[in-house]
Amino acid sequence: MGNLFKILGLTILILITSVIGVSTIVSWNWLHRPLSKLLSITFEREFNILELDFNFFSGQPIVNINNLYLANSNWGKKPFLLHIEKIIAQLDLWSLLKGHWVLPKVILIKPIIYLELSPQNLPNWIFGKPSEQPLNIKIKQLSVQEGSLTFFAPHLDTDFTAQITEKPIISNHAVALHGIGRIRNGHTELKLRAESLAVFLESWRSLNLDGCFTWGYTSGRIGGMLVDPLKFQGFDFEIEMNGPSPAVLYPLTGINLPYLPLYKIQAHIKQQQNKWMISNIEGLIGGSDFAGDLVWEVSNKQLPRLFGKLKSNQLSLIDIGIGKDTPPQNPPPPAEPLNFDVNLEFYGKKVISPLILEEVKTLIRVKEGQFYLDSLNFGLTGGQVNATIKLDSHFNPMPINLTTQFKLLDLNRLLAPLGIKQQDSGNLSGKLQFVSKGGNIIETFKTAEGNAFFMVTRAQLDSILLALARLDLAKTLNSVLLIDKSVAVRCAVAKVIAHNGVFTFDPIVIDAATTKVTGNGTINLLINQLDFTFEPHPKDLSLFSAYSPFRVTGNLQSPEVRIKVGSLGGRMAAAAALGALIGPVGAVMPFIEPGIGEDNDCQNLVNNASINVTD
After folding, report:
1. Span 164-188, mean pLDDT?
2. Which terminus of the chain has fewer CB atoms gathered within 10 Å of its CB, N or C?
3. Among the listed residues 495, 493, 496, 489, the one whose alpha carbon sits nearest the alpha carbon of residue 426
4. Distance between the two ends of the chain, CA-based, in angstroms?
5. Shortest CA distance to 64 belongs to which of 97, 100, 107, 33?
6. Beta-bridge partner residues of 546
7. From CA 38, how far away is CA 536, in angstroms rounded?
8. 97: Cβ–Cβ under 8 A, 6 or more apart, which residues?
9. 77, 152 contact by CB (below 8 A)
10. Share of the chain above pLDDT 70, in %
11. How confident is the model at residue 468 (pLDDT cuts 50, 70, 90)?
């Protein structure tokens, strides 16, 4: 290419010297045809110059080109790729002798550019044979008057036109672009400034850009460089963006995301071939913050892949769409399976749900539409939870498979969000495994299938609970059921089976200091009812003790506790009969409970209750 320019420069110089004397009467328009033919061969695309004129009466001759056309691809819908109504250019003749193009000044009047993508995403602006060496041309001053640039891709619902003008800056002229149109069926406005476009034309390499944009209700700023503008590749820029929800970006990104609160994000984005490296991420979603580094990799042979690390100082689950029951005002089409793979490490210092999760660590994976939270570990109410969660994005809502173990959770803090306040409620440990059809929290529990085991230790069960389960006549006469005192609970265990919206608790064992309570029951989420039966057994003889089973039944929001009258009535009938036969002493014998509630070792309770609970 350099030799061609040297030969062309020498030829022009010979022509100039041979015709300088008659240049005022000779028209140079005859050159437009051979020059058009030469450029057509060079670009392998029809190139046409309708009128050409030279003015050599100065040290820097002026070339006037009228109506320059560069044809479109044969599949293109637009009439041409490039049309410039008029080009006025100054030439540096001495540079031509060295094989260089130096243009002290270039004016483009009404340039029109049509960029198109075919249905196969082939660009119309890539043509000709690639050159290993940059075009050796230098433009010292560039002026654009009334230009326009259109990007057209019907299969992508895109038709965007920008007006181009030039504005002088310090030592060069910057090109300003203001465009309005439709990109991916979203109303788009773009304002860009390309600084030192002349420098780009000199090297045919990177192009510096900065500006702002809106797409629908999403807006932002961008600044950086386009490393290979001719191929529209090699992005390297800083971006700031905010909008109503990341979900609305699906037409642009192709990534299915849930409807989330207002978001704001900034990052450095760099493209290298099929990889987009997104670094120095800082963002907010609602009241939640996040930061980290990600890589988005696209391949023709497999699904796109997202991998990297994210962290958060404070993250609300509702902000990221977990536990949010209300649908968006303008819901998207039915959810499709996740169409990309993920391998993402996450750390959250504080995660806010109905409770506060601390030091959350997990590996987030998505593989062929299956969503995994592997090795999910976090602190909860002073205890620790370890879990594995699997979701299937092929369905809406997504079915869930949960396996978890938890240890020493503080029941006081655990029950507080439910409005239950109990002093010294103890620690909760256990494990559970279930599958569910998913949905919000209530729907997830209603369709749960599986089993669980729970254990409570170091608790204080207020004596009112045991008083409801017994009528200890001697103690009642003393202090109205001893409501002001508490009873130490050594251990309490329960095994639960979930099936068709019904949770069956069997057995339930509460081992208190003076009494053992056994029981069983059900919670039916389909009809919002519960039904439990408990039977206390004393560990010592208690004169005038009338222990009786009791039931807890009714609505989940307002259950009732009832003494099983039949059992207590039998004891009272026996007392009356004995009283008739042997007098007052015999009448109290049925109320003397033989201490069948022997001390139970908590480990034995755990072993017995946890049989058949899946690990």
Report:
1. 77
2. C
3. 489
4. 73
5. 107
6. 471
7. 104
8. 6, 9, 10, 13
9. yes
10. 68
11. very low
